[in-house]
Amino acid sequence: MTPENALPRRLLLAATAGLVTGTVGLGTAQRARARGAEAVEPDIDSTAAWGARPPRGTVSTLQYRPTKIVVHHTVSANTSDFSRAQAHSHAHWVQDLHMDKNGWVDTGYHFLVSRGGWITEGRYGSLRTLTGGSAFVQGAHTSGQNNQAIGIANEGSYHAGAVPPTAQWEVLVLMCAYVCAQYRIPAAQIYGHKDFGDTLCPGVVHDMLPRLRDEVAGRM
Questions:
Q1: Model confidence over 5-29: pLDDT tens digits?
Q2: Burial (CB count <10 Å: 0-12, 13-18, 19+), residue 209
Q3: pLDDT tens column, 179-195
Q4: Strands (E), the chain
Q5: How distant, in Å, are the alpha carbons of 48, 87, 124, 141, 171 from that of 52?
Q6: End-to-end CA distance of the chain
Q7: What is the pLDDT of residues 86-127, one digit of tens each?
């Protein structure tokens, strides 16, 4: 399915409580609902929903709010399969990579956004603590930031001129806005992986961070 063909299946979210002006296009999985005047909560497929393996050890819950978001890409194939099933397959691929190759207890990222605009929970407990808004699980996505930042990874490889599909970008904005609202993180505190280490991640998405911050601030 091409990005153009994916767009007609998206839902429109009407503005509520002065939160958003106009309408917001979302992936089918993102049947968003308003939560007062503070946030728009997207549908997120939990680890149970996509059939994640159980963690291999303890996933620590930190009893305070994170202070920033770090955006990644997973350097997976830039698939044209925009289905929910592909999002789940990608979540399995990332978990297997992190647990079996890296030797981590679970997926390092808190959440993943597929190229088709579906959100999956990455590390066990990330969705539960995000919904609560006062704690988060320690990630394994960015050296020196794992006890301070929520890691959100985009399916795909965004080097050499590749850019995120529209559905993925729109849902990334929505997801970041929800995380910022839940944890009281300013939109200015959205970074890319390469801000904290010697890496090319998240590719061209790093160049798009000023736009991401602006659009997240607008949604808030």
A1: 333 233 333 232 233 333 333 443 3
A2: middle
A3: 999 999 999 999 999 99
A4: 11-14, 23-26, 33-35, 39-41, 61-62, 68-73, 111-113, 119-121, 136-137, 149-154, 190-192
A5: 6, 12, 9, 18, 22
A6: 31
A7: 999 999 999 999 999 999 999 999 999 999 999 999 999 999
Number of CB atoms found within 10 A of residue 8's CB: 6
pTM of the predicted model as reported, rounded to 2 decimal places: 0.85
Query: Which ranges constitute the DSSP H helices of 52-144?
Result: 84-96, 126-132
> What tokens were used for 175?
């997801």
Q: What is the DSSP letter of 64?
A: S
Residue 50 backbone dihedrals phi, psi, to 5 degrees: -100, 5
φ, ψ of residue 108 to 5 degrees: the values are -80, -30
- For the chain, the 3-state helix, strand and coil shares in percent, each to the nearest 5, are 35, 20, 45
The angle formed by the CA atoms of residues 42, 202 and 20, to the nearest 5 degrees, is 30
Q: Tokens 């955006």 map to which residue?
A: 71
CA distance 45 to 113: 10
Nearest to 68 by CA among 193, 190, 212, 194: 190
